Request: fold
Amino acid sequence: MSSNNDGESFRYDAEVRPGEKRHIMYEVGESFLGDPIEIPVTIINGVNKGPRVFVSAAMHGDEVNGVKVVQEVADRYDPQELSGTIVCLHVLNVPGYRAHLRYLPIYDRDLNRSFPGSENGNEGKRIAKVIYDRFVSNCDIGVDFHTSTRNKVTIFHTRADMSDPAVAEVANAFLSTIVLDGAGAEGMMRRVASEDGIPTITVEMGEAHRYQPAMVDLALENLHNLFAYFGLIDEEFETEPAWQRIVGPKEKKWIRSTAGGWVDMDWGPYPIVEEGNSVCTISDHFKREEHVVEAPFTGLVIGMAANPITVPGQIIAHVVSIDDDDRKVIEQIVDEQGYSRIGTYHWMGRRTTPNEDVERARRGSTTPEESETDESEPERGTA
Reply:
């Protein structure tokens, strides 16, 4: 790290001088009462010159894991020990965050389809315009934190356009192991920023409306490596993850329910499904009808439904293809660190291996014998 104290001021419509950390509430719009809508922002401007990195959260108001990540970044880093600038955008979608809603309330607009924004557009585009022009466009690198939407969960992974060398460098510096490769949809902040020469990645981690400390800790570790890699802090770093699976558009699939009823996941204890084997069984309340949903290929379950109640067409799991080498690494991670390190509190798969199930049955430690049941048709319309 340079010790020349050659830092530069960070400017938005004000100025943060080198060696200063500033917490602000910045107006990005107005409410129905004419009150200002303000987003919390922390700018940590190092005493020395270096790259400017933004970290952002709560683009969707129900995605809270990233909010804790950004809060910790804002607290942990000292501008006196920094070469460059960290811009912490704590909560991008303040109206949604206040209402515990994914989208901007009332009209359900997705803020992450509104960039780069427009000063004459709808409320989402106007908010996006201010955020982008004042903060994002003044940075060199970006990391945007997300979670899955309600009633769904996702393991820790990155979304990035790996065909762009600058974006790939950011993803690798963040030590991204599982990367869904693609530029992203039109209007996404990471796509717009990357196309404007500000390589940006999206990090997906966990569930909406949930605080998952293991995922937050992993995000903070990986961000610390990224800061070291790009020279913001003077520490050792890894140039890339020890293992990585880059997933192309044709190497992943949403698996959907084929019937309505109760979902029993048939995979586990590793988050892996086997081609042609059952992903889950869907049954009615009386277990008279059972529908088996099979895996189209052998893959890693990176997302799944958090609710075991389903209807035809609903998403059950999000699966990406893996090979034998990938499988060995995934099993090792789960064995050594536990699924919560990359996964979620909601574990709907089996917790024991088939061999352990056999051993339990041999010892007579299975569930008690089923009682006799009346196999006649249930009466309808009675309490």
Remarks:
- Confidence is low (pLDDT under 50) at residues 365-383.
- Residues 10-247 form a domain with the Aminopeptidase fold (CATH 3.40.630.10).
- The longest helix spans residues 213-229.
- The chain has two domains: 10-247, 249-363.
